[in-house]
User: Fold this.
Amino acid sequence: MFRFRSFWLLCVDAGDDGKLVSSMAKTKIVASLFAEMFSVGLYKRNQGKQVRQVTGVAIAAFFLIFASTLSNNLPTRSAEILRLGLPALIGVLGTWFAYRIVNYAPVADFLIAVQSEMDKVSWPTWPQLWRATVVVLVTMVFLAVSLFLFDIVWQYIFRGVGFLKM
Assistant:
């Protein structure tokens, strides 16, 4: 019997030991995600706040931009409720999804870990950043000029041999 598995379920199939997770465990994961969508509590309220807020805003922005694009591209002859109601519904549900998904325990724990790792990064100072930027830009210009000169030299050689004719 052929079983279709979505990409999301494939991501959840393998456990920590590499063995496949039973379908009952998958059902529990999906049920817990579904239950999370209808709760209003915050998971680990004070941990990973910045990363969770930025992630939630980015997901909400995706849904809102999609809803706006949908609203602008629906035919003007369609019913007013469809033209305005459907994008509004998508925007509201997408924003709620964004708010809830960053409070779903596995996602929230991942984002908390991201925040803790980002706190360990030693960020460059502005002078260091400017110096590094100048090095990159000078290197890019040098490589562009070098490739241009190589191109001219090879064109001259190939034309001299008769390989290129203009």
Observations:
- The radius of gyration is 27 Å.
